[in-house]
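anyone seen this seq b4? input:
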Amino acid sequence: MKENRNVSMTYRRYGSSENDTRILAPYCVKLFRQRWYLVGSNDEGMKRTFAFDRIEKVELLDEKFKIDEDFDAAEFFSDSYGIVVDDKMVSERIVLRAYGYERYYLGDLTLHHSQRMIASTDDYCDFELTLRPTSDFKAQLLSRGQWVEVLEPQSLAEEIVEWHKNAIERYKK
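predicted toks r here
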């Protein structure tokens, strides 16, 4: 990255029996949940994220690239919870209610830089965030179980309810 040199990378996605080799301009790396990721740009300027642990081979090429002048790594991830960046999704105002001790955890360890507390009682705290509700964010909400409820938007609340119902059905089998 320091030398602005392209790399040839062989990568195997989860669930795939075959690997894929591609030429990338390495733009930045990001640490998320104790795992390192590479953000790379292809010939068309599309930026994708790749987990280091699924990279099977990297070859440094002589070919140089010019980084997009408007690329800012912090801005690239600013509307995301973690490493999933979906340009087709729009950022939304999300309101969460945290119960029990979870209200303290969410107060101390925010889920996103936009998070702020908007209400507090002896039983719960409400938090507002503005981000894209990507799959990794939804999985994080599910991991909080009964201690976090989505108040807004209703469509996200309904999706989380559906995911919980699906989990219950798996346990019934």
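The helical segments are 73-77, 102-108, 135-143, 154-172. The beta strands are 5-11, 20-32, 35-41, 47-51, 55-64, 92-99, 116-120, 124-131, 148-152. kinda curious what u guys think
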